Amino acid sequence: MTSTETFRSQIPAPLPPHPIVIPAARETVLSNGLNVVVVEDSRLPLVNYRLGLRVGSSYDPPGSPSLTDLLAGLLPEGTESRTSREIADQTARVGASLSAGANSDYTIVAASALKQFSEQILDLMAEVILQPSFPENEVELAKQNTKESLRQQRAQPSFLATEMVSKVMFGEHPYSIIAPTPESLDRLTRDEFVRFHQKKFVPNNGVFIVSGDVRFEEIIARLESLFSTWSSGEALSTEFPATPKRTKRSAYLVDRPGSAQSNIVIANSGITRSNPDYFPMLLMHTVLGATASSRLFMNLREEKGYTYGAYSNLDARRTAGTFRSTAEVRTAVTGDSLKEFFYELGRIRDDRVSDKEINDAKSYLTGVFPIRLETQEGLIDQLVQIKMLNLPFNYLETYRDRVQAVTVEEIQRVANAYVRPDEAAVIIVGDGAAVMDQIRPYAEEIETYTTAGKRKETSRSAPAANVVGSWAIEVETPLGQAIPATLTVSSEPTGLTAKITSEMGDADIGQIEVNNNAFQKTAAIEMHGHSIEIQLAVQFDHEQVEGTLTMQNSSMPFTGSKL
Amino acid sequence: MTFQIPSANVEQFTLANGLRVVLSQDHAVPVVSIAVYYDVGSRNEKEGRTGFAHLFEHMMFQGSENVPKAAHFQYIFNAGGTMNGTTSTERTNYFETLPSNYLPLAFWLESDRMRSLKVTQENLDNQRNAVQEEKRLRYDNQPYVNAFLRMNELIFTNPANAHSTIGSMEDLDDATIDDVREFFRVYYAPNNAVLSVVGDFDGAQARELIEKYFASIPAQPLPPSVDVSEKEEVAIKNEIFNDPLAPAPAFVLGWKIPARRTPEFYALSLGGTLLFDGDSARLYQKLVKGDESVVSIEGGIDERRGPSAFYIFALPKPGEEVAEIREKIFAEIKSIATEGPSDEEMEKLRNSLCNDAVRGRQSTMYRAQRLAEFALYDSDPSLFDNELDHYLSVTAADIKNSVSRFIDVDNRVVLDIIPVAAAEEEAEVAASPQPPGETSQPASPAPQIPEQPFSEPETVHSEIPQISAEPVKDLADTQL
Q1: Is B200 exposed, middle or buried (0-12, 13-18, 19+ CB in 10 A)?
Q2: How many other CB atoms are found less than 10 A from the CB of residue A420?
Q3: Whether A435 contacts A448, CB under 8 Å
Q4: Are A500 and A485 in contact (CB under 8 A)?
């Protein structure tokens, strides 16, 4: 379509901007030491409450991972005067919400209601904060259900990636542990919850934030009376072990046979949230990978079509942090994707970002800022983070100026300080047999793990020869049956060939090409007169062999030894 | 009970080319949200081209006469905005929230792609790859999700309703550049769309800008109408779904129900709330808490302009008798169908409806989307203010009668999800189709909680980082 409308050929000029009014937050301290922040907002008849406590899973006692998270979840599951069911019913009856949860740095109890029910829900919220009873049966149910969801999480590649990144990057620091184990869950007792609550859930660790259709004086008086019996306790330690210092680029492959994609995470040590480098890092991250117009997305998705999305991740928490680049890519382009990632990581260090890029990033960050102030929930979440991460109380007022103040030089400085490809940990969750050779050029060493987190012996240094012969293997079906079979590798004038014999059926694998003591091949197995396609991935290691046999979408691992 | 929610002060008009426009001013925060809804979704797809509406949605970000490829993202982000697009069975939508002084930018971008989308083979190939990765990421590499796609095929018999929005890999492979051009011509016309604008703007100025940018885009003949009619009965009663990724058995129950905004739909939607929404819901209290026989139970309603669907998904605990769990679910449904909801439950429904209605008004984007939806489906955006009354007028007897007529019936699907290896073994043993009635559950590892079993109808476009390497509850890095 041709156009005579010349105005269309140019991006329109913006209209004069309207000022942003940041809602006034007033702060006080109750007589028991509980910090309170109130935002009066009467646009709608709604009230939101948050209690934030600076105790998160990084304070879980050694041997009791997830204690804090489970404890938070158990708060609304019974009090001295109400059962779990009564709490759920009473909350729902007034159309309100009441919930609690924890992350690595802090715990949040959240409630909200229409103004007409806001006092009722506040009373109930105070009750679950102060008088949780941790009923035996609820503790047991929470443990059992956590075990089940843990099993589900292990089936998720994203969980496996996060688990490995955390373990590698945080070392002795408690951020390294992101989930409990079935055994640690079994050990947890009701007493432990009761004691942890008494000791760590104290007002001097927390802040209570109210946003909505309330009056400051009235709500302060109400909170003073509700929380008068809550007395202060010992301050939390702020000392944590240092994170490991990395000196080379290593890959950590979590072998997930048959995986439809490779999850890639490239990680370096980062900064804490209160580090003065935070704002230069935020700008660097915005240019490199924060959005769908950043360099990583434009390269790996829009130009190459390797992935649904490629991003960077500025993980800056209260006591440590990482800087990561991530994408889920199709298996065949795992190596090509690493190439593009390292190209972009090198470029952000070596070349100054352009004036246009830094200005665009500033405009993005300052522009999206007010969108978060539209809703009470958006504003109160900002206030929670300010308080829980020890940011200045005027953070919202100064945010846009601090973004504007960052220079091109500062971006390059922090890129060189924190984006360090030669020291990066490269985590890949994917089909090991299919991606191993693709990863090799991008890492000095490769450690391989099972999806259960167990280290596998790598076979890099094993001699390439001696795969010829017969190997006794056992193929494990998803039901746990072990089917015995024999894998025979023969040396023919034309090269190596292989075949499998078993009581289930035989498969002629045909010619194989062994690289680094491994091969992959698609072949057909004859079973009960039917020919069924199989994919075979085999890794030899001296006298041992392991691999996967994939048939009809079902991946079966096998191990064995030379006959 | 009457409950006054603040009015959205809706203003509406139609341009000469048929573009329906809805405006709602709110000056609290200097932002503005714009939504463009096209009356085309996967229900309009031809046979052999499933997934095309969604693939086309990706193409709408690939450039137009005055906007280079992928510049759409950049213009919006560089102005300090957020944006996305999604496709469902019913419609395809595109939306952005911006600092309010960038309103002209949004109109420029949306009008340019409405009038002059540019398509190239290279961009089509590239976006086909991105969509196929999206399918792998969110469907094929996830346990339980594809079972929901199968469920739709069992509930609905009309192909327009039955196939999935994400489509099949083969059909995506087959899509051609001519398909893209033809789809654009037929469906992306101003008279097949709604534009809604909510937030901090001046009404007269907005109207002037809309005329300037959109009025000259020519109308097109109306697209062919789509037949979504269904016979009442559900096609198949029991089926087994072999899921290679499912670590444990689970099941889905599904029913066909009347279209949105019918009296029966309102009543069933509230009946669903009582059965499966939140910790106070009947099935949660009975099975997760009381019996402790399931790890999780969830339910949902697929709301459509035509025949819609009602689902319940359960993950039994290891060793629990699945048939028994199903009987308990049916008994709870029967209890609503015979005794109706209690007074306490009706009070809960009223208060929750009011709470949700107020809360939903806070976000300009939420309002823009709802207004556009009501304008597109019902030609009546004022429903944003009035729809609550329809729900509040539902009585306990209405819920009882509708649950009795549509849910407490044998006219339903039971889909057993079985880990694929277990299924193979079972097939070897039985070597024949399952006998009618309950299927037996083979011994298996512990059940798992699916990530988002109800996420299917909406397929989200590009922007949202789907999987961050963070533990879910940890801080998103661009929060502040």
Answers
A1: buried
A2: 16
A3: no
A4: yes
Residue among B130, B212, B364 minimizing CB distance to A301: B130
- pTM to 2 decimals? 0.83
Write the DSSP symbol of residue B365. H
> Considering Cα of A70, then A76, then A82, then A85, what sign does the dihedral take?
negative
Residue B130 maps to which CATH number? 3.30.830.10
Asked if residues A431 and A259 have their Cβ atoms less than 8 Å apart, the reply is yes
Residue with tokens 């998720």: A156
Q: What is the largest CA-CA distance in chain A?
A: 92
Cα torsion A436, A440, A442, A445: sign: positive
Q: How many CB atoms lie within 10 A of CB B36?
A: 28
Per-residue pLDDT at A375 exceeds 50: yes
Q: Are residues B356 and B304 in the same domain?
A: yes
Alpha helices, DSSP H only, in A264-333?
Answer: 278-288, 295-296
Interface residue A103 vs chain B (CB under 8 A): yes
**How many structural domains is chain B composed of?**
2
Indicate if B196 and B69 belong to the same structural domain. yes
**pLDDT for B185:** 94
A293 CB-near residues (< 8 Å, 6+ apart): A360, B70, B73, B74, B76, B77, B78
Range of the domain at B182: 10-214
Q: What is the pLDDT of residues A80-108, one digit of tens each?
A: 999 999 999 999 999 999 999 999 999 99
Nearest to B449 by CA among A413, A164, A227, A145: A145
DSSP A177: -
Q: A141 to chain B: nearest residue by CA? A: B292
Q: Which of B308, B270, B241, B380 is nearest to B43 (CA)?
A: B308
- Which residues on B lie below 8 Å from A374 (Cβ)? 28-29, 31, 362-364
C-beta neighbour count of A235 within 10 angstroms = 10
Q: Are B255 and B311 members of one domain?
A: yes
Task: List b or e across B328-351, with b for residues whose CB sees 16 or more CB atoms inside 10 angstroms.
Answer: bbbebbeebbeebbeeebbbbbbb
Instruction: Tell me how far apart the alpha carbons of residues B372 and B198 are, in angstroms, rounded to a whole number.
Output: 10
Indicate yes or no: CB of A370 within 8 angstroms of CB of B141. no
Using an 8 Å CB-CB cutoff, list chain A residues near B423. Answer: none
Residue B473 lies in a domain: no
Q: State how far the Cα of A496 lies from the Cα of A91, in Å rounded to an integer.
A: 70
Taking the C-alpha atoms of residue B115 and residue A69, their distance in angstroms, rounded to an integer, is 52
Region class of A66: left (phi > 0), else alpha (psi between -120 and 50), else beta: left
Q: What is the tens place of the pLDDT at every residue in A418-474? A: 999 999 999 999 999 999 999 999 999 999 999 888 898 754 444 445 788 889 998
How far lies B185's CA from each of B41, B181, B218, B222, B252, in Å?
Answer: 15, 6, 11, 10, 39
Residue A216, amino acid: F
Interface of A with B in 521-550 (CB under 8 A): none
Rounded Cα distance, B373 and B377, in Å: 6
